[in-house]
Structure formats: structure tokens, C-alpha cells
Amino acid sequence: MAVRAGFLLAAAAWVWLSAVAASAFDDVPTAAFDERFSPLFGDGNLVRSSDDRSVRLLLDRRSGSGFMSSDYYLHGFFSASIKLPKDYTAGVVVAFYLSNGDVYEKTHDELDFEFLGSRWGGQWRVQTNVYGNGSTSHGREERYLLPFDPTLEAHRYSVLWAPTHIIFYIDDTPIREVIRHPDMGGDFPAKPMALYATIWDGSAWATEGGKYKVNYKYAPFASEFSDLAVVGPRADPVLRAPRGAGDDQDLLGLMTADYAVMTPQKRAAMRAFRARHMTYTVCYDAVRYASGPFPECDNSDEERENFSAWGESKTVVMRPRARGRRRGRKAGAGAGARGRADVASS
Prior knowledge:
Blueprint: H1 2-20, H2 33-36, E1 37-41, E2 46-48, E3 54-59, E4 65-69, E5 72-73, E6 76-83, E7 92-99, E8 110-116, E9 125-131, E10 142-145, E11 155-161, E12 165-170, E13 173-179, E14 194-201, E15 221-231, E16 234-236, E17 241-242, H3 247-256, H4 264-277, E18 278-285, H5 301-304, E19 310-312
Antiparallel strand pairs: 1-4, 2-3, 3-15, 4-14, 5-16, 6-11, 6-15, 7-8, 7-14, 8-9, 9-10, 10-18, 11-12, 12-13, 16-17, 18-19
Helix pairs in contact: 1-4
């Protein structure tokens, strides 16, 4: 009962925090799938709605699935409402991310939302990451628990990528801000990227370091994407320049939009989220990065006391929620699931 009561209090607090910045997203235009996106892999495991405004991505024994934007963008605002698979989801990874890895294999940039399944229904973890210029050996991971069950209804996940800063949002509340520091150099993403969405088998690492694998008796695992939004100047990924006239104005509009500006109220909401829900941050990982925190980290001695030397929170830990009997559906035989190979392990 105590765990359930704590969850309800967290959910109530989340409703209040989300309302702080809700108006920032009221005017963001959404797009039909055909207007901005193309299938990436998965064939029949990518299912588009009849009105072309939403997509279901499925993972089964045969394959995962995914789609990507039809264009590359040099900065922008990227958003989707996502409903995650339910029941036993250990080893399952759903990703919503920006990347140019197919153009710059060894010097790629990337901004990630990665959703990591668990043995307990609804207890998904969310990981954000920032790569620039192929800096995968020192990625900037952070992980969080969610104050709601993401399998019951869709929630909005967004990334604002500007020349000066990056903001990750969940349901209109900022959860992470990365301000470009001169000492970051090429670690700050600066080349045109495309937007991707995938579901795949991450059994090797996604749940407790690979201890728990995908169990295909619960397949197909279905993730739903709707309210797809891409706002920003289109760009040539090789020339690294905007494609058309007026794109400078698009960048000005992006930089002055509500979702690109961190007000004191939004920053307070972000601090509250991080205090309640962040389970790991690279900024306090003194073991993996013994030379010190990254230049953009805004660390404090008081906050540091809440984290171990590995960057793990001492106060925010995953606990199983009250759950009913799990039910699954059998899946047919077939080849192994397919997914991204370039993701850093958890």
C-alpha cells in the first residue's frame, strides 16, 4: 500500500509540474506520416493508422521495426506522443532519437530518448544521451524513472536542439538541459541529423546489464507513436547547410519559441523532476570519468551527497509496483529481432 500511495502522490505532483509549461506546446504543428517520415525496417511490423496520423511499431521473434524522417535538420524541435508496451518487457528497447550515423559513421552526432523495459509491467526506465562527433566512448547518459505508467496512455517526449543548448522534455516539463560550453568542442551535436523511432531486442544490455532477456511469449510488443512533430530548418547532411531560403528565419523562430526558452518556473520544474526521478547522471560518475565532470555539468557539493561514486542515485531507486496477473500471447517461430547496433550499454 505504501508503494502504491507513493506512486499516486508522485503522479499528482507530475500533473502539477506538467501544467507549468503546458502552453509552450499548444501551437506545435503535427504532421501526417507521409508528410515527414518513411519506413526504416520491419515491413509488416510497422502499422500505420487509417488517417496516417499515428504508427504502431511491433517487436516479435521475426523482427523489430522503425521509421525515420524523410529529411535531415540542422537544429529543431522534435516531438511525439508515445505509448509503451505493457506486461513483461525485459530486454525491450524503444528509441526516439536524432542521428546522422548513416552519413558520418565514425564521427556521428546523436540525441536520444531510450525507453528500457523491465520485468514489471509499467516500470519502464528512460535514458537520455548526447553524442557529438563520434564521442560514444564518453556519452552523456542520464536515466530516470517515470511518475506515471507509460503503458496506459500516450505521453509526449520532445527534444529541443538549438545551436546554444539542448532541452529534453516529458509532457511539457523539461527534465534535462545541456548548455553548450566552449570546452565541449565537437562533443556538442552540430551536424544535420534525421529523426528516428525504433523498437528492438536489447537483451544483451537493456535490463540489469543483460541479466533479463526478451521473453517472446509476451510478443508482439507494441509501441504507439502519434502527434509527430518536426519543427526546424531542413539541411543537406553532407554540405551541413540549410536547403532553402528562409531557413535563417526558421532558426530565429525556433530560438525564440516558448519551448526553447528556460524560464525560472520551467527550471524549477526541471529541478523537482530530477530530484524525484533521476536514478543516474554522468555528471556525478567519478569512477567512469575520474578526471572530473563534463564542462557543462552544474554540480553542487550538496547535491553530490545524494549520488554514489558511480553516478547512481542513493535516494531514487526502482521498486516494483502493485501488479495483477501477467498475460502473454504466443508468437510464431522466426529469425531474431533486429535493432540498432550503435547504442551504448546500460
